[in-house]
Amino acid sequence: MRRKVIAGNWKMNNNLAESQNLISKLITGLSSQKTNCEVIICPPFTSLSESSTLIKDTVIKLGAQNMYFEENGAFTGEVSASMLKSVGCEYVILGHSERRAIFGETDELINKKIKKALLSNLKPIFCVGETLEERESGITKDVVKRQVTGGLKDITVDELEKIIIAYEPVWAIGTGKTATPAQAEEVHAFIRELVTGLYNKSAADNLIIQYGGSVKPDNAAELLSQPDIDGALVGGACLKADSFISIIKAA
Ligand code: 13P
Predict the structure, then answer these.
(1) Residue 204's Cα: distance from chain center in Å?
(2) Domains held by the chain: number
């Protein structure tokens, strides 16, 4: 039985004071209940260090939203894996569709980042997903296959154990339009089958595959009850403590 993992991607939201406020509400809300799923928050870089201090000795784990694959040097504006480790990150989101679409990240670049994260003991939350146009052209599986295969190039079976894959159909992100549980399950099962072919059945059976795209308290339970959906990567609904906690409860 795979564990469930609920992660909150704060995106470019919450300054330091707002981050402190949200975390304190999450800690209070979560302390009064038993959580048997893993909970991760991914604040912006500027709040990571303080967040790490605040969540110490709680069930909440810390992730970043991006990193660069070089160790250090003349890469203005970038942040390295070891910098993320030094402020207490355990996870890092890589290949998010906003990074791909707005910042031009390619499968090849994302693969380099995944390799560097693993070398640095950071667990990647590796995002894949098709655009509306790609879905309507009937090439969803081709796109997801290219992204998964490209991102995992030269990753060993042992390394795969540290990776979470997040399936986030681009048309469902921030649009209020969720994939139906059946639509999401179909792609999740496809990813698991793909990983069986790339690695083996046991690696695929153990792989955590999260769904992301307009996950809300009222649709979380149904999505999370699908056999191949092992968690959620939540955007908008993780910015309010109440709704993020409701999604965690649903898991
Ligand atoms: P929304 O939940 O706001 O649709 O965002 C999903 C997402 O992109 C999480 O990474």
Answers:
(1) 17
(2) 1
Chain length of the chain: 251
DSSP 162-176: T-EEEE--GGGTTSS
For a ligand 1 pocket test, name from 10, 11, 177, 178 the mutation site with the most ligand atoms within 8 angstroms of its C-beta.
Answer: 11
**Residues 142-198: tens digit of each pLDDT:** 999 999 999 999 999 999 999 999 999 999 998 888 899 999 999 999 999 999 999
- Residue 221's CATH number: 3.20.20.70
Q: Which two tokens stand for residue 17?
A: 């004071």
Protein residue with least CA distance to atom 5, ligand 1: 235
Instruction: Kindly report whether the global pTM for this prediction surpasses the value 0.85.
Output: yes
Please give the Cα distance from 216 to 235 (Å, whole number). 9
Whose CA is closest to 159, among 119, 127, 109? 119
Using the structure block, give the residue that is written with the tokens 């090439």: 139
At 242, the amino acid letter reads D
Q: What three-state secondary structure class fits 57? A: coil
What single letter denotes the amino acid at residue 44? Answer: P
Residue nearest atom 7 in ligand 1 by C-alpha distance: 235
List the end-to-end C-alpha distance of the chain, in Å, as a whole number. 14
Q: Could you identify the atom of ligand 1 that is nearest to the CA of residue 237?
A: 2
Instruction: Tell me which residue range forms the domain holding 138.
Output: 5-250
